[in-house]
Amino acid sequence: MTFPGFTNHDIEVADGVRLAAAVGGTGSPIVLLHGFPQTRLMWRHVAAELVAEHTVICPDLRGYGASDKPRTGYAKRTMAADIVELAKQLGHPRFALAGHDRGALVAFRAGLDHPAAVTHLACLDVLPTLDMWDALRGTAGAVGFHLYLMAQPAGLPEAMIAASADAFFGHFLDAWTLRPEALPAEVRAEYLAASRAAVPSIVADYRASATVDVEHDRADLAAGRTLAMPVTVLQQDWGAQLGYDAAALWRAWAPDLHHRTVSCGHFVAEEEPAMVAAELRSLLRRDADQREVSAAG
To answer: For residue 56, is it within any domain?
Structure first.
């Protein structure tokens, strides 16, 4: 499946690693990063809403979809550098960035590592890595069983998932949505096929979040680093079940934060695309609105 009116690009962002991306529109650039178990296709509705006003760039992350799947290189720091290089090669050294799920963790790291490149940041239905691990306690944390499975040393997780890939990935597509019609059969089939073909790299991405990504986030936390750009977070109210205040956790990382609790399921960009597009437009206006307030004062 393709994005009508977009062109497909295949760009080398690191030695031997190429990312596939759909690019459309003109105007200020925004990069949209997909989550698990998905591809850039998850942004099809939001991209269609934004393309009249912006250059919209929708890549498949390293290890997913039509992008290359090297055996190593799944630290979010590396994956974030991929995205910065991709945007640069497309002529955009500065850009807004939105990510969902795994893509939100890449976007978060890009905002911390590349504040001169990322002008605005949106993260959909995720917590920062350190806060995610802290939140998963007791039996309520069983909802995150896949995080613990894919954190195990290489070999067993890959074999278990590959043995029943469609059932594994399909579980999340079914369990995480409150509006099944948002994932029609042909879209679901594409996600399953893409995930089935990427089991080792998907597991490597998750394993990094239990190892090197934790180290990088701890170092930033100890150094007092925060996100310097305007940040919008849209997420379900998992805090009520797991016992945390999501807005407070995010505010520790993002001083300029707009946090909104959504009423749909995990696949926000497909279940509520008009709302997501409106929130992204609002985010992109925030620096201009702040300058107007400062000038008026």
So the answer is: yes
Measured CA to CA, the distance from residue 78 to residue 87 in angstroms comes to 15
pLDDT at 295 (0 to 100): 43
Helices and strands: H and E segment counts in the chain: 14, 8
Is 1 inside any structural domain?
A: no
Question: What CATH number does the domain containing 63 carry?
Answer: 3.40.50.1820
* Residue linked to tokens 């090297």: 70
Q: Which of 60, 68, 101, 220 is catalytic?
A: 101
DSSP-assigned beta bridge partners for residue 100: 124
Cis peptide before 37 (omega within 30 of 0): yes
Query: In this structure, are residues 45 and 269 in contact, taking their beta carbons and an 8 Å threshold?
Result: yes
Pairing of strands 28-33, 257-261: unpaired
pLDDT of residue 290: 54
- Both tokens of residue 262? 């959504």
Give percent of the chain above pLDDT 90: 89
Tell me which of 32-46, 120-134, 190-204, 235-249 is least confident.
235-249
Q: Give the chain's domain count.
A: 1
Classify residue 126: in a domain, yes or no.
yes
Predicted confidence (pLDDT) per residue in 15-68, tens digit: 999 999 999 999 999 999 999 999 999 999 999 999 999 999 999 999 999 999
240-297 pLDDT per residue, tens: 777 889 999 999 999 999 999 999 999 999 999 999 999 999 999 998 555 444 444 4
Q: Identify the active-site residue in 34, 114, 120, 266.
A: 266
As beta bridge partners, residue 258 has: 232
Examine the residue annotation and report whether 256 is marked as an active-site residue of this protein: no
> φ, ψ for residue 7 (rounded to 5)?
-105, 145
Residue 144 lies in a domain: yes
114 is catalytic: no
Q: What is the span of the domain harbouring residue 35?
A: 7-296
